[in-house]
TrEMBL record:
<dbReference type="GO" id="GO:0052658">
    <property type="term" value="F:inositol-1,4,5-trisphosphate 5-phosphatase activity"/>
</dbReference>
<dbReference type="GO" id="GO:0005829">
    <property type="term" value="C:cytosol"/>
</dbReference>
<dbReference type="InterPro" id="IPR013783">
    <property type="entry name" value="Ig-like_fold"/>
</dbReference>
<keyword id="KW-0378">Hydrolase</keyword>
<dbReference type="Pfam" id="PF22669">
    <property type="entry name" value="Exo_endo_phos2"/>
</dbReference>
<dbReference type="GO" id="GO:0030670">
    <property type="term" value="C:phagocytic vesicle membrane"/>
</dbReference>
<dbReference type="InterPro" id="IPR036691">
    <property type="entry name" value="Endo/exonu/phosph_ase_sf"/>
</dbReference>
<keyword id="KW-0443">Lipid metabolism</keyword>
<dbReference type="InterPro" id="IPR031896">
    <property type="entry name" value="INPP5B_PH_dom"/>
</dbReference>
<dbReference type="InterPro" id="IPR000198">
    <property type="entry name" value="RhoGAP_dom"/>
</dbReference>
<feature type="region of interest" description="Disordered">
    <location>
        <begin position="90"/>
        <end position="110"/>
    </location>
</feature>
<dbReference type="GO" id="GO:0004439">
    <property type="term" value="F:phosphatidylinositol-4,5-bisphosphate 5-phosphatase activity"/>
</dbReference>
<keyword id="KW-0968">Cytoplasmic vesicle</keyword>
<protein>
    <recommendedName>
        <fullName>phosphoinositide 5-phosphatase</fullName>
        <ecNumber>3.1.3.36</ecNumber>
    </recommendedName>
</protein>
<keyword id="KW-0472">Membrane</keyword>
<dbReference type="InterPro" id="IPR046985">
    <property type="entry name" value="IP5"/>
</dbReference>
<dbReference type="InterPro" id="IPR037793">
    <property type="entry name" value="OCRL1/INPP5B_INPP5c"/>
</dbReference>
Length: 810
């Protein structure tokens, strides 16, 4: 699993002084493992440390910063005699002169981790991935020109890719994967293997922890083609989604710029039971992105699946080695391979008719009813992607251990849930098939073999192109100051709503001089823009006479809504667009925010008898700024509501319509329906909430998450953790809550108990509800360290006590 902030703490500080040295070392156990943790040996006068850091751009940039602390070391291999210089390993050095960087060696020596990390497109042999790289404007211009001239110094060479996907239904590996992974005579050059539903346990869902990662990793490694030697490049997992990347060992030196990303699209747009994981890398001079996704389930939820796909595409980002360049998205790659349990079903078609088509192997007739085909034809999803002809029977749903269709009470209809698609040039699919011999799951694994044309560099032509660019740049340099023309400098966002993205665009048109631009911080401010705004991209590079479109994205969420509701903050900002070696341009951003119950305090909403949109800004501000512990005589003329009317509408809707709803609070709703629900609560234009039960349930969770003071006040957080196993003390803590908060707590607990009475239908249990609501009703104070697993479990246990007992309200 990846290291996170909650896993580490500061124990000691090692100063970078005389005698300090940092050197990457390669333990024997790391041989032939590309992308394994980076082992660094740190030496100083009074310390000898060996640390392991996760492979990737963050570690690389951290080590670059260590190197920058003593810049005199750069470019020198023998600095031990100078007391002012940092002693580093030879592999950290690089040559900053304008010489054509030689390509990586093609010798067939044994592959080690250190050698693999040394391989990087257009980087010297000796400069490993940890080396300090020069990312000045001149280097950026050279790299950009090299990209434009790429066709002049590269040629295409085909490499064989194996792509596989398998939903394992929470099972451990019980059978060999050889029939799936090693069916062909010729061993592939690259393996991309994805799993879904690796672990269905609550621990995996809520705490992203599972022993099955290692089990399936070993099962895959043991089943790779026996006629080749492979190196593991990278492994990435989010809850039950696992993606593994291997290459032939003799290709390892041509793999570089390896990065991973994860996006959860489950409930509240974050839970990782649904979503995607991805690995991107450069193979020779071709950028490749592999995505493994598990989209929303159930036949009727095809719109939610479409939304999941779009969310993964928009939210998945990969750091670049050049910190001056914006992150890469999925679509910014030469080759995209998308695999997974996409969950699209067959409709409308009766079960018996489906099975008749399958028995007759009339797969193309059956394919006409496939949801994914229909959505792709309508360009609603996977636009620009291609899927091969399906010549195998549906891969879902089977009885585990055999090839019989589902005989359970639900009797799920067959479907091609498990798919492989691609996007890019020079891609030829050689096979697309399922593997019926594997019976471990209710899904069958699917594989595809591709021949992919990869851009390989001709060393001599590359050097020639490089030298031409440098000569041209020498003539151009210092010719003039860069300047640009902006298509627009003033922006107004009208009627901004809670969690509803608005985007305005403008174009930067460059003049005759290459320029690097960046939005920079204003004086005494930590960021270049307010928290509710982002510029995409926020920095970049422009060649002469080129232009770039910038998107200004305005999005109000839980962290900014309260101050906008109260009027303490306005939608107003000034952006400064800075040109390297040029002048600054100022952009004005303004807008009007429509206040919402989302982000409003419980107490404020209890004093609002009319919709928040009907109230004056002054009244909202006055109620929002009321102190939490107020005396009863402040509003003698009007008694507050027991609970917010907005909360009552959502809970009442679920009580009447969703008490027996399967997967309630676990399956996300539609964003469009959430927006309708939000508007209904804020305006009271309708007496009935629109949208599915799942959308209303998610709106309730988002409402609780948006409260600036949680249901159980911040001041009582530690008390609750201390008495998480003592119901009597826990009731005493709840009794200390302000009346409106106590009423909301008791109301929600009563509703959750009602759901548990219908657990036979909705399949909810105490653990699920306590885990979901424990993190919403009982949240740590803003300055509190991020809760670890133990703390999260205590919050869950605190809520569990109240769900298991039907006693009197505190």
């Amino acid at each position: 699993m990846a290291i996170t902030a909650e896993d580490v703490c500061l124990e000691r500080v090692v100063p970078i002084t005389e005698g300090f040295a940092a050197e990457e070392v390669t333990p024997d156990s790391d041989l032939h493992i590309i992308g394994s943790d980076v082992t660094v040996q740190i030496s100083s006068e009074d310390a000898q440390l060996v640390v392991r850091l996760p492979f990737g751009s963050h570690t690389r940039m951290f080590l670059q910063e260590i190197s920058r602390c003593r810049p005199a070391v750069v470019g020198s291999e023998d600095m031990n005699e100078n007391e002012n210089n940092l002693v580093v390993n030879h592999s950290w050095s690089h040559n900053s002169d304008d010489k054509a960087p030689p390509r990586q060696s093609k010798s067939k020596m044994d592959v080690t981790t250190e050698m693999v990390r040394s391989s990087s497109g257009m980087v010297t042999d000796n400069a490993c991935i940890l080396s300090e790289q020069n990312f000045g404007l001149r280097d950026t211009i050279v790299k950009s020109q090299l990209v434009l001239k790429e066709d002049s110094y590269t040629y295409l060479q085909n490499f064989r890719f194996f792509i596989g996907t398998y939903n394992v239904n929470g099972q451990s590996p019980k059978e060999s994967l050889v029939p799936w992974l090693s069916r062909d005579v010729e061993p592939p050059d690259v393996y991309c293997v994805g799993f879904q539903e690796l672990d269905l346990s609550k621990e995996a869902f809520f705490f992203n922890d599972t022993p099955k990662e290692e089990e399936w990793f070993k099962a895959v490694t043991d089943s790779l083609h026996p006629d080749a030697k492979y190196a593991k490049v990278k492994l990435v997992r989010l809850v039950g989604m696992l993606l593994l990347l291997y290459v032939k060992a003799d290709h390892a030196l041509n793999i570089s710029e390896v990065e991973t990303g994860t996006v959860g699209t489950g409930i509240m747009g974050r839970m990782g039971n649904k979503g995607g994981v991805a690995i991107r890398f450069k193979f020779h001079n071709t950028s490749v992105c592999i995505v493994n996704s598990h989209l929303a389930a159930h036949t009727e939820e095809y719109e939610r699946r479409n939304q999941d796909f779009k969310d993964i595409c928009s939210r998945m980002q990969f750091c670049q080695s050049d910190p001056n360049l914006p992150p890469l998205t999925i679509n910014k790659h030469d080759v995209i391979l998308w695999l997974g349990d996409l969950n699209y079903r067959l409709e409308p078609l009766g079960l018996e008719k489906m099975k008749m088509h399958i028995e007759k192997e009339e797969f193309q007739d059956l394919y006409q009813y496939d949801q994914l085909k229909k959505q792709m034809d309508a360009k609603a999803v996977f636009d620009g992607f291609t899927e091969g002809k399906i010549t195998f029977q549906p891969t879902y749903k089977y009885d585990t251990g055999c090839d019989d269709w589902d005989t359970s009470e639900k009797c799920r209809a067959p479907a091609w849930c498990d798919r492989i698609l691609w996007k890019g040039k020079n891609i030829s699919q050689l096979s697309y098939r399922s593997h019926m011999t594997l019976k471990n799951s209710d899904h069958k694994p699917v594989s595809s073999i591709f021949d992919i044309g990869v851009k390989v560099v001709n060393e001599e032509l590359y050097r020639k192109a490089f030298e031409e660019i440098v000569r041209s740049l020498d003539k151009m340099e210092n010719a003039s100051i860069p300047s640009v023309i902006l298509s627009q400098r003033e922006f107004f966002f009208k009627d901004v709503k809670y969690m509803q993205l608005q985007v305005e665009t403008f174009t930067i048109r460059n003049g005759q001089v290459p320029c690097q631009f960046e939005f920079i911080n204003k004086l005494d401010e930590d960021n270049y823009c307010k928290e509710w705004l982002i510029a995409n991209p926020s920095k970049g590079f422009l060649l002469p006479d080129s232009e770039m479109t910038i998107e200004l994205e305005l999005f109000v969420n839980k962290s900014t809504a309260t101050r906008l509701n109260s009027g303490e903050e306005k939608l107003e900002d000034i952006l400064i667009l800075h040109l390297d070696r040029g002048k600054d341009y100022f952009l004005s951003v303004m807008g009007n925010y429509l206040p919402s119950c989302f982000g409003s305090p419980i107490q404020t909403l209890c004093y609002m008898r009319e919709p928040i949109r009907d109230m004056s800004a002054e009244s909202i501000r006055e109620l929002t700024l009321l102190p939490l512990q107020m005396s009863d005589d402040i509003f003698r003329d009007e008694k507050p509501l027991d609970i917010p009317k907005e909360l009552w509408m959502m809970v009442d809707h679920l009580y009447r319509n969703a008490s027996q709803q399967e997967d309630l609070f676990q399956q996300p709703g539609l964003r469009s329906e959430f927006e309708q629900i939000r508007d209904c609560l804020d305006t009271a234009m309708l007496d009935t909430l629109l949208g599915s039960n799942h959308s209303v349930a998610e709106a309730l969770l988002l409402f609780l998450e948006s409260l600036p003071e949680p249901v159980i006040c911040y001041s009582l957080y530690n008390n609750c953790l201390h008495c998480a196993n003592n119901y009597t003390l826990s009731r005493q803590v709840v009794s200390m809550l302000p009346m409106c908060h106590k009423n909301v707590f008791n109301y929600l607990v009563a509703f959750l108990r009602e759901l548990l009475r219908n657990s036979g239908k909705n399949h909810l249990d105490v653990n699920i509800l306590a885990s979901i609501f424990g993190g919403l009703l009982l949240r740590p104070p803003p300055q509190h360290p991020t809760p670890d697993v133990t703390e999260k479990r205590k919050a869950q246990q605190f809520i569990e006590q109240f769900l298991l007992r039907e006693g009197n309200s505190p």
